[in-house]
Specification:
75 residues, 3 helices
């Protein structure tokens, strides 16, 4: 069961859940509400290191695959 929306937004009546509010929107308002995008999160340092390790691993696997394919084609 959903929690009712808080009174922090004066435009939202008290006691309505987010599903009830979405059901009250016009179709174009609903599409606009669903298309709302949040910005990218800034990764913490350990995540940045992990991404670079994964990139290096991917490049190493790619090189091994290309070398194996070339050796197979040469016979």
């Amino acid at each position: 069961m959903e929690e009712p929306l808080t009174k922090s937004d004066p435009a939202v009546p008290t006691g309505l859940t987010s599903a009830q509010v979405l059901s009250l929107l016009e179709p174009d308002q609903l599409v606009s509400a669903k298309r709302h995008h949040f910005g990218r999160r800034t990764p913490v340092p350990w995540q940045t290191v992990m991404f670079w390790i994964l990139r290096a691993y991917w490049l190493a696997v790619l090189v091994v695959a290309v070398v194996a394919a070339i050796r197979t084609l040469k016979g």
